[in-house]
Amino acid sequence: MSDNYHIPVLAEAVRRYLIADKKGIYVDGTVGGWGHAKLLLKDLDREAVFIGLDQDGDALEFATKTLADFPNVYLYRANFADLHSVLDERDITSIHGAFLDLGVSSRQIDNAARGFSFMQDAPLDMRMNRDSEISAVDILNEWSQEQLADLFYRFGEERRSRRIAARVVRVRSSQPVLRTGQLREIIERSVGKQAALKTCARVFQALRIEVNQELRRLEEGLHAAFDALLPGGRIVVLSYHSLEDRRTKEFFRSKADPCHCPPELPQCICGKKPQLKILTRRAVKASEQEIAINSRARSVRLRAGEKL
Length: 308
Ligand SMILES: C[S@@+](CC[C@H](N)C(=O)[O-])C[C@H]1O[C@@H](n2cnc3c(N)ncnc32)[C@H](O)[C@@H]1O
Known about the structure:
This protein is α/β, with parallel strands linked by helices. It folds into 2 domains: about 10-105 and about 215-305, Rossmann fold, CATH 3.40.50.150; about 135-210, Putative methyltransferase TM0872, insert domain (DNA polymerase, domain 1). The chain contains 13 helices and 7 strands. A 7-stranded mixed β-sheet has the order 3-2-1-4-5-7-6, sandwiched between helices. Helix 7 packs across helix 8 and helix 11 (about 215-230) runs parallel beside helix 12. The longest helix has 19 residues, at about 195-210. The protein is globular, with a radius of gyration of 21 Å. The mean pLDDT is about 95.
């Protein structure tokens, strides 16, 4: 495993879009290796309150050691979709900013035992929260061929999903599919060695999204964060694939332009007023310099909004 837990992506843009009040209450819903959190904390006044969440116990343990010197930091092992319960526990009714850096950290990918990577052979786990009951093994061995094909297609956008699902079912009829190496071999045999790496990335992404219910939790988390924001409060989201980014973009649009009146009407009759100002007309991307240092930045899309 590398020494670097995780290099924060678009750190300067995150700081600029998120912090409107240096004494405010901020939530980092995905603290991971605390790369962003440490930079944000440097910018905030000591009276500010910083709440960090992560559903992964390892990330929380790491953060607790790293942030021991900051008295204004409160850490919770929690899903950001459950933000309301965390805020209730601290008697906080509203916040000045919420930040989500979606997906898995480099540490989670590099740690072979977590089963997120097809580059190393390990048990097919893929749970960010290791208390949750369903892992990738359960899905691969219990779902029907049709369900698997739909999963690889919907959450991996994989065109050869049916062929791969058929082979998974064939292999598991003689032995369960338990390891990342086995799944990689199934994919290689289904699509050929040349296309295998990109296909592995898509199929592993699909499984990871399903195991962690990532898209459902993202939608719940966006609503929870938005509801908690004060007027003038900011929400900043970093997405790493089109499924996440699409949901974030649609959520922002639904709050910025909620009117559903037919366009031919001369004026709005539904009375729904904008609740969000979109601060990023187009998603912000990383520069070539940043991508050269951190390949993970290649696919990032930053979107930010301010509650009205
Ligand atoms: C991309 S990393 C965050 C890296 C962090 N910004 C940094 O600079 O080190 C994403 C982290 O969010 C956590 N995570 C993902 N989805 C989550 C969710 N729904 N609720 C809470 N934590 C989540 C993962 O466990 C992982 O540690």
